[in-house]
Design a protein that fits this description.
With 128 residues, this protein is of the alpha+beta class. Helices cover 32% and strands 21% of the residues. The radius of gyration is 28 Å and the shape is rod-shaped.
Length: 128
């Protein structure tokens, strides 16, 4: 093998290594982007739940999406699960007037929401 062929082979090897490094860098960057998007979805604080806004067991609760923050990722509405049974409940002292509505919302109300993990109705302040 002549010196010229050896030099050409080394040059080809370097080009191949450079192409491999670029390819690996692109794959790593793509995986990081996908990971960041998945992490954002996992952190999304929006969920669908039953809300009884009038504390009246004779009216049905509504199935709505509630979010912790205005900029949280919205979710696609799932098929509503079976509506939970409401039990009569007195409204506690309304504390929603003590809350300043976050940016992007106009008002806040104290409402009953169904916590499907604990399987019970809880009072929450919901801003719209």
């Amino acid at each position: 093998m002549t010196e010229e062929e050896k030099l050409r082979r080394r040059t080809d090897d370097r080009e191949t290594n450079t192409e491999r490094m670029i390819f690996i860098s692109v794959i790593v960057a793509a995986l990081m982007i996908v990971g960041a998007l998945l992490a954002r979805q996992a952190d999304a604080a929006c969920e669908w739940s039953w809300v009884d806004d009038d504390y009246d067991t004779s009216t049905d609760p509504i199935y709505v999406e509630t979010c912790d923050r205005q900029w949280d990722t919205r979710t696609i509405e799932p098929i509503a699960p079976i509506q939970p049974i409401q039990s009569p409940r007195l409204r506690s002292i309304d504390q929603s007037n003590l809350v300043i509505p976050p940016a992007g919302t106009a008002s806040c109300d104290q409402q009953l929401t169904y916590d499907s993990r604990r399987r019970q109705w809880i009072e929450q302040i919901i801003c719209q």
